[in-house]
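Hey,
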Amino acid sequence: RAGVADPLLIWLDAHGDFNDWQTTPSRFLGGMPLAMLVGIGEQRMMQAVGCQPLRESQVLLVDGRDLDVGERALIENSGIGFVRDVSALLSMSWGSRPIYIHFDTDIVNPNAMPAASYLAEGGPMPAEIAAVFSHLAKNTNIVCASMTCWNPKMAGAEKSADVCLDLFNILLGA
């Protein structure tokens, strides 16, 4: 965050990744990174790399259709933005503010992207996400993007790879 004026992290994910040790039913560290990034819960990794937490107002969770009960309460009592419909991003504006985008591929509807390790029923289809990514690529100041991967050992891995890479290329303006 050093040297970057008021960045925004847009976290697109079927899950909230907003658990801490008190709310997680699974004790899975992979369900905690967004909470960690705003200084909630486990902080050893953040401290180890010298990372300062983002202000909650600098984070927008998009979709989050599969939340644990305690995680939902943490989100509702936090200051992060929470948008359930990915298409809502089409009407939002952030000017020249630097945008960091995290694309967790399990946000894609499992009918179109079946090889995700943590499938969540429902979700947007690739065309809907493509429209949003195209809009973001053309109208925002994306300075960083990350993507989780599909599971290459699951049925539908090739289809999932094509969908995810196509979407990521749109986001990157390729």
